[in-house]
What we know:
By secondary structure, this protein is mostly beta strands. It contains no helices and 3 strands.
Amino acid sequence: MLTPPCEHTHTILIAKDEQGEHLECLDCGEIFDVAERGPASPGFNETLSDA
Ligand SMILES: [Zn+2]
């Protein structure tokens, strides 16, 4: 039984510098740049939607 790859749907901004913003995935703990996550979308609002 394979574990599906983490889709990093829950991320927090942990650092920001001239190279970009760095996110940490709350699910798997991986850290990556916003630029690595795909096309530059100005609004990555992955907040909890508890509307
Ligand atoms: Zn993840």
